[in-house]
Design goal:
single chain, about 140 residues, about 30% helix, two-stranded antiparallel sheet, alpha+beta, 3 helices
Length: about 140
């Protein structure tokens, strides 16, 4: 069963004595609903649902399209799994750090094929350094 905001307002008004919108405005109802949500979140340690998205790494490829991933704004971390099955968490970099690496001319090729950092903009994940043949 899916409830929208109008349903929650109606249920709240019913629960507090069958009030109408003149007794409890939408703004007041929304405030009470938000306060209730925040109180429940503070009282109970809900676990976040973890989602794993797998994609193959390609030699010398920097960018990967994540359009198949839902809830991109909820990404907490990004990692890759090596041939031995070990997970390696990547460090996030900013757009400025990324631009400085490529625009100052000091980086012509990666020092190793081990991915260390990432930049996510929209649906595009950019990794540095790009994977090399040692990860195949």
């Amino acid at each position: 069963m899916s409830l929208d905001l109008a349903d929650f307002r109606r249920l709240l008004r019913k629960a507090v004595g069958n009030l109408d919108t003149t007794d409890l405005s939408n703004d007041e109802a929304d405030e009470l609903l938000n306060l209730s949500l925040w109180d429940v979140e503070d009282r109970f340690a809900f676990e976040l649902k973890e989602t794993v998205y797998n994609t193959a790494l390609v030699t010398d490829q920097y960018e990967y399209n994540l359009s198949g991933v839902s809830l991109l704004d909820s990404i907490v971390s990004i990692s890759y799994i090596d041939d031995q099955g070990e997970s390696h968490r990547l460090n996030r970099m900013t757009r400025q750090e990324y631009d400085e690496m490529f625009n100052d001319g000091s980086i012509t090729s990666p020092s190793s094929g081990l991915i260390e950092r990432y930049l996510r903009e929209g649906n595009v994940l950019t990794v540095w350094p790009p994977p090399d043949s040692t990860l195949d």
